């Protein structure tokens, strides 16, 4: 199983004062990524366009679990997900798309990589629920769906785009989601590392871009079903919008056309 995080090392440093016993313990948390992550970062950084496609072509996909995300599978099986139309941006191999899809929920998996989209189709085309989902090769930031969504699920997508793009991500979510729809964010990686992708995230990072658009967290909890070294570094957020809240910044961005950007400039 491939993971973003390779290991977490804890070092307890004792600080002493002259003539006194140790009075404090300072814990430093350093995150060491797997070699595949550094290779992926270099490839994305050097490719002016098509970086993510190159990653998929070369099999440099350390974010790909190879199976559905346990928490999303649990929410589906317990009936805790909204019905209707759902979107999974940056869906990759499409495991979560398939896991969520059912007769009461049609799921669209979106990815900027042609290779990823083809892989998702190949893996899922013969499944019993294949009529309940579809995969599209398109850029999240420039794509315009024919219908709005009741649910948007984001995992390893928010952390893949550059931090300066996050306000545009929020505006696009608002644009695609029904007024009474729900945004589910599996926040990862919650850490203090430098650089990316994946770029570090925090609850406040989401609040900073979602609150001005009227989104409020219904609940934010630790992801108790996080896998492997992602344990302790994920939170599940469920957001809904106050439809009475308007945001001038969102209107300005749409009027100026600044939502039209290349996803390959991100992750």
Annotation keywords:
alpha/beta; 7-stranded mixed sheet; two-stranded antiparallel ribbon
What's the rounded overall pLDDT mean? 84
Percent strand: 25-35%
CATH topology: Rossmann fold
Q: Give the strand order, joined by hyphens, for the main sheet.
A: 5-4-3-6-7-9-8
GO molecular function: S-adenosylmethionine-dependent methyltransferase activity
Organism: Populus davidiana
Protein name: Thiol methyltransferase 2
Keywords: Methyltransferase, Phosphoprotein, S-adenosyl-L-methionine, Transferase
Descriptive account of the structure:
The protein has one domain (64-265): Vaccinia Virus protein VP39 (Rossmann fold, 3-Layer(aba) Sandwich). Helix 6 packs across helix 7. With 267 residues, it is an alpha/beta fold. The chain has helices at residues 35-46, 51-58, 70-77, 95-100, 114-124, 166-176, 203-210, 248-256, and strands at residues 5-15, 24-33, 84-89, 105-111, 133-137, 149-155, 177-187, 215-222, 235-241. 40% of the residues are buried.
Q: What's a quick, concise take on this entry?
A:
The longest helix is centred in the N-terminal third of the chain and has 12 residues.
What is the fold's blueprint, element by element?
Blueprint: E1 5-15, E2 24-33, H1 35-46, H2 51-58, H3 70-77, E3 84-89, H4 95-100, E4 105-111, H5 114-124, E5 133-137, E6 149-155, H6 166-176, E7 177-187, H7 203-210, E8 215-222, E9 235-241, H8 248-256
Parallel strand pairs: 3-4, 3-6, 4-5, 6-7
Antiparallel strand pairs: 1-2, 7-9, 8-9
Helix pairs in contact: 1-2, 6-7
Pfam families: TPMT (PF05724)
Organism: Populus davidiana
Protein name: Thiol methyltransferase 2
């Amino acid at each position: 199983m491939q993971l973003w995080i390779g290991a977490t090392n804890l070092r307890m440093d004792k600080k002493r004062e002259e003539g006194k016993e140790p009075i404090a313990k300072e814990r430093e948390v350093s995150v060491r990524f797997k070699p595949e992550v550094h290779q992926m970062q270099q490839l994305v950084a050097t490719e002016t366009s098509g970086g993510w496609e190159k990653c998929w072509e070369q099999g440099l996909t350390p974010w790909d679990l190879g199976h559905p995300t346990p928490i999303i599978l649990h929410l589906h099986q317990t009936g805790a997900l909204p019905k209707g139309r759902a979107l999974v941006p940056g869906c990759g191999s499409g495991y979560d798309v398939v896991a969520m899809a059912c007769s009461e929920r049609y799921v669209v998996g979106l990815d900027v990589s042609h290779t990823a989209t083809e892989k998702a189709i190949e893996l899922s085309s013969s499944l019993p629920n294949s009529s309940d989902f579809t995969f599209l090769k398109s850029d999240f930031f420039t794509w315009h769906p024919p219908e709005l969504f009741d649910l948007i699920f984001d995992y390893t997508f928010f952390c893949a785009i550059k931090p300066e793009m996050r306000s545009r991500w929020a505006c696009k979510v608002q644009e695609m989601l029904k007024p009474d729809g729900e945004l589910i964010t599996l926040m990862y990686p919650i850490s203090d590392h430098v650089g990316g992708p994946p770029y570090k995230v925090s609850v406040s990072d989401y609040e900073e871009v979602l609150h001005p658009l009227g989104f409020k967290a219904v609940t934010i909890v630790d992801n108790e079903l996080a896998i492997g070294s992602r344990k302790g570094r994920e939170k599940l957020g469920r957001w809904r919008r106050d439809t009475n809240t308007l945001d001038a910044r969102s209107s300005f961005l749409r009027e100026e056309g600044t939502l039209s950007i290349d996803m390959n400039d991100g992750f």
